[in-house]
Design a protein that fits this description.
Elements: E1 3-6, H1 10-19, E2 30-33, E3 53-60, E4 71-77, E5 99-104, E6 110-116, H2 120-128, E7 135-140, E8 146-152
Antiparallel strand pairs: 1-8, 2-3, 3-4, 5-6, 5-7, 7-8
The structure holds zinc ion.
Zinc ion (ZN) binds near residues 40, 45, 76 and 77.
């Protein structure tokens, strides 16, 4: 099975950079220098501490997919970046990190969950092997924050 990795929409990243407000919520977004591990949800690369700035804002991980929404804190690069291309499995920056995959079916129904620290592609493929599963959410197991969506390519 080929995995497709889906970052947040480019329009969302641009809107938050231009307005410094959370799209759809209007809550203030916060811009500061990166410190520590901060993955950008648009390019899916780490925002380099001491070298790049981030914007922290409230994002609904189910935007465009269903209700109820699940707003939570995410980062993007403060400056323009390229959206993650999407093919080729779980991005390098997340391999070996504590990740939790949540599997969702029609109507946002939560079907299962798997926590991994290594073996990410295999775990994602196994969850997506269930024909009832439409997509996965990848979250940080330690912070709980939403990272990206995983689909069948
Ligand atoms: Zn970025």
């Amino acid at each position: 099975m080929q995995l497709k990795i889906v970052p947040i929409a480019t329009a969302t990243a641009r809107a938050v950079r231009q307005t410094l407000k959370a799209p759809g919520y209007g809550f203030p977004a916060h811009r500061e220098a990166a410190a520590g591990r901060a993955p950008c949800r648009h390019c899916l690369r780490l925002i380099r501490p001491g070298a790049e700035e981030l914007i922290l804002f409230t994002y609904d991980a189910f935007a465009g997919l269903g209700v109820p929404p699940l707003p939570g804190p995410v980062y993007v690069h403060a400056e323009e970046c390229q959206a993650h291309a999407g093919e080729g499995g779980i991005p390098e920056e997340y391999r070996g990190q504590p990740l939790t995959f949540e599997a969702f079916g029609d109507g946002r129904q939560r079907l299962s969950e798997r926590s991994v620290e290594g073996g990410e592609d295999q775990a994602a493929e196994e969850l997506l092997g269930d024909p009832g599963v439409r997509y996965l959410h990848a979250r940080s197991t330690t912070a709980g924050c939403y990272l990206f969506r995983v689909e069948r390519a």
